[in-house]
Amino acid sequence: MPEQVVESIMEAVVARNPGETEFHQAVHEVAESVAIAIKKHPELARAKIFERIMEPERQIIFRVPWQDDSGRIHINRGFRVEFNSAIGPYKGGLRFHPSVYLGIIKFLGFEQVFKNALTTTPIGGGKGGSDFDPKGKTDNEVMRFCQSFMSELFRHVGPDTDVPAGDIGVGTREIGYLFGQYKKLTNSFTGTLTGKGLGWGGSLVRKEATGYGLIYFISRMLQTLGKDWKDLPVVISGSGNVSIYACERAQQFGARVIAMSDSNGYIVDEAGIKLDTVKKIKEVQRGRIKEYAAEHSSAQYNEGSAGIWTVPCKVALPSATQNEIDVESAQSLVKNGCIAVGEGANMPSTPEAIQTFIDNGVSFGPAKAANAGGVVTSALEMCQNSMRLDWTFEEVDKRLHLIMDSIYDQAVQAAEAFGVPGNLADGANIAGFLKVAHAMMAQGLV
Ligand code: NDP
Questions:
Q1: Separation CA 24–CA 158 (nearest Å)
Q2: Containing structural domain, residue 323
Q3: 342 and 293 share one domain
Q4: Which tens digits make up the pLDDT trace of 370-394?
Q5: Residue 63 domain flag
Q6: What is 377-417 written as a DSSP string?
Q7: Of 40, 156, 310, 345, which is the most exposed, with the fewest CB atoms less than 10 Å away?
Q8: Do 173 and 139 meet the contact criterion of CB atoms below 8 Å apart?
Q9: How would DSSP label each residue in 224-276?
Q10: What is the pLDDT of residue 7?
Q11: Is 127 among the catalytic positions?
Q12: How far is the CA of 328 from the centre of ligand 1 (A)?
């Protein structure tokens, strides 16, 4: 698409989806990348494939009433955006966070379409969630909320239709309550949700998958740069599921992870983060990262999460949330000698930050390629559920590793084929887009 076509598409997106700034940002980023691919394939332009892809196939918005422990009634809003089913059932997580609104869910669902296409597994793209905040709620309150949420969602999902998973604020506890209600309402035990617990349909490695996958992806990047993880200083934002398991694998490969964060602030421990302490605080006590500094005298705590990008490192893994690295943070990473950035979170770098990395020769692993390990393993969970079989940890990890290598190769090859060698952001967008586009062309105007 020539520049003016991208601009007119963006005008239409903004007019049709007012106020959904994260969605506009995600569409713009992909439109700019795939413009060169569409120029080479005019039949895709004639069929308006890009314009069709950016319109979700279906959007569901619903009321979620629930009662807290003291009997007070609360009303939240639930969402499920079924974005694209050209290559398989809709697949993507549920996010429970007060910031959730339609624009966030649509940006995540849109990104998911291309990410899932890169995984080489047969899954379409979707995303959902609610503006409910599980923080500070009791287990019983979370359970009542999840049951109410599923009382509506169950009629829209199914093992061959739409298979939700977790995301921010939705871990094994929430998936358990959602699954229990789904099973009761449908009287069936199927693989409709992934991220289930071990022993009731879950897959080994799912918990670790996004973090481990990110490290496998960045390992390939480091190899290309002639480097390895040994003693490399690494900064990882967040201290949730992705961050913890990225830290675990990086440390197992010999890296020195020196900083982690949460939404209040960050810790720096030059002696190397003691991951057992982080796991205890975050996974067991559901506490704050600040508590780490009280247990380890080698660490300092700083208020404000954005400051983490001023900590000098060779590899930066933003794994908390969208738009957490702005241009100033990117410049600070470049100035301090960072050689590689791998996005563990979805869209954690602003477009200006990505440009700063590319202009300064920092190797950049975009989210839809680098953090695909979670959805890869969810697809492997669906596969095991369909076969009624459980694979070993080694079997799942081996498949995850192979698929992450293949995602890296697809992004590199597409970047080369379309004249932007080394630009994995464009490469991943083009490879994912072409796979979905060709499937849509084959299936006619539906
Ligand atoms: P979690 O809820 O487990 O953890 C999120 C972490 O990010 C927490 O430490 C949280 O801190 C921190 N955080 C949230 N908002 C901010 C903020 N504004 N500034 C700084 N830190 C913040 O989520 P996940 O680890 O599962 O997900 C993290 C990211 O990775 C998301 O973008 C998600 O979409 C993406 N992702 C996750 C996958 C998965 O398999 N889990 C798969 C692919 C992508 P606090 O506790 O203070 O809120």
A1: 29
A2: 209-365
A3: yes
A4: 999 999 999 999 999 999 999 999 9
A5: yes
A6: HHHHHHHHHHHT----HHHHHHHHHHHHHHHHHHHHHHHHH
A7: 40
A8: yes
A9: HTT--STT-EEEE---SHHHHHHHHHHHHTT-EEEEEE-SSEEEEETT---HH
A10: 87
A11: yes
A12: 21
- Residue in this structure with the two tokens 């004249």, named with its chain if needed: 419
CB atoms within 10 A of CB 304: 11
Q: How many Cα neighbours within 13 Å face the side chain of 203?
A: 32
91, 106, 115, 127: the catalytic one is 127
* Residues whose CB falls within 8 Å of the CB of residue 390, separated by 6 or more in sequence, listed in order: 203, 204, 384
Tokens at residue 244, please? 């913890």
Amino acid in position 303: E
SS3 at position 96: strand
Domain count, the chain: 2
- Token look-up 């597994």 returns 121
Residue 17 lies in a domain: no
Does residue 3 fall inside a structural domain? no
pLDDT at 1: 58
Look-up of token digits 């997580």: 93
Residue 246 CA to ligand 1 centre (angstroms): 12
Q: What residue ranges line ligand 1, CB within 6 angstroms?
A: 166-169, 210, 238-243, 261-264, 305, 319-321, 324, 344-346, 371, 374
pTM of the shown model: 0.95
